[in-house]
Prior knowledge:
Blueprint: E1 2-9, H1 36-42, E2 47-50, H2 52-55, H3 58-70, E3 74-79, H4 103-118, E4 126-129, H5 136-145, E5 149-150, E6 175-176, E7 179-183, E8 189-190, E9 195-197, H6 202-209, H7 216-225, E10 228-230, H8 238-250, E11 255-261, H9 276-297, E12 300-301, H10 304-310, H11 314-324
Parallel strand pairs: 1-2, 1-11, 1-12, 2-3, 3-4, 4-5, 5-8
Antiparallel strand pairs: 6-7, 9-10
Amino acid sequence: MLLAVSIDVExxxxxxxxxxxxxxxxxxxxxxxxxxxxxxEFGIRPTLLVSYQVxxxxxxxxxxxxxxxxxxxxxxxxxxxxxxxxxxxxxxxEPVPSELMPEDLLDAKxxxxxxxxxxxxxxxxSFRMGRFNIGPKMLAxxxxxxxxxxxxxxxxxxxxxxxxxxxxxxxxxxxxxxxPYRPGDSPILEVPMTIVPVVKGLGSLLERFxxxxxxxxxxxxxxxxxxxxxxxxxxxxxxxxxxxxxxHRARGGVVLSVFFHSSELIPGGYPGHGTAEDVRRFLDKLRxxxxxxxxxxxxxxxxxxxxxxxxxxPNVAASLKRHTGQ
Length: 326
């Protein structure tokens, strides 16, 4: 299997449910050095998806390029629309879903983010939207800006300002321009988070059931808490991580897309990571997960951009297309 590890490299404070538009700190970025021994041991080639509030500080960029080179990784873009200029009041609570924003405003925010990359001579080709909130407007902007890969789909998740459907695919695919949750003819490779429904087709069933207004919250809660197994280290324990991988592989899965936030590496930066000991336990879990993947599953670590190139290989493309119905 192919292992695509991504890290959302971003500012602090996002897990307090406050979406500050003012300048915010990003002291957690230096804590990325804590995963260096693990990445070196298991040959992890991560895709670092970096927000505007991190990119605007030159000292962070210097560290990120050093780590990216050391890990043979990739540097990509991560848009937090609520604190990336231009800032314009909108008649909706934050975080405003991308489909409710004027497209010219979204485009201008992307320009601001990309300008911080151009200032240091970097042209990112991989992207993730903050809170996994991708829609047709954002997909169209990514195409215009020359992106090759998006990682903004989180199957079996739905909440305001975030994922909009429960029935997303689990393996990579080329999305439909009018509905990024379905295969289509966009040239951008969509790399969803590996979140596996416990019963095949459960996401589609819950999506239909959730269209009844009184059932919407229940369907979303069930999908996230009982109806799925995430291969995401910050969300669950090692036993469930392994179960998610086994189930995905048993169903013909080809790619494991695993992510975490840089803020999960600093005490107090994430719920459940309140102390240095909590962070140490998280790092131990990462090491245990990657060790098991290499010893028992057999994985090849790859960046998002590398995965896009790999998709061109006939054997990989055929396997992925069979699994996604393309």
